[in-house]
Amino acid sequence: MSNNLENLVKQAETDISSQSKMRKTATGESLRVPKLSVAIIIWLIAILLAAYQFDDVVSIFSKPAESKVERDLGSILTNAGSSLRSFEIANGSLPHLLPNSAIRGLVKYERRSDFSFLLTATIGNVTMVLDSSSTRPHRETKAN
Questions:
Q1: Residue closest to 129 by CA, chosen among 97, 96, 107, 114
Q2: Model confidence, pTM
Q3: Cys staple from 127: which of 79, 122, 123, 132, with CB 3.0 to 4.6 Å?
Q4: pLDDT in tens, 48-77
């Protein structure tokens, strides 16, 4: 009888073991995934960041493209123009100085009257102009 009992216990253990292996295979637990080391993960993140910031990284070592300078100056002039228009709405006339002191060294502000202005910004060979009558800045072309 003890022999039958031992056989039943061994049979139960075998059944449990085989069921456990079948579950692991079905759920994918037995598949091994290679683990990446911390160094490889850091390098991958660094490469992704460098690729994302490629234009900024390249501009550190070389001059930025004129089109990028145009976009940047245009954005600055647009923001300065919005600031002037907001000041005009709030106070009834344009200010004598640019309200944003941070850009006074970069943007030349010419107050033509209480309600009209001209903004000019230059970096290198690129000069952008925004007139109060227009909504978008344009590149100034130099006549030779």
A1: 107
A2: 0.55
A3: 122
A4: 887 777 766 666 666 767 888 889 999 999
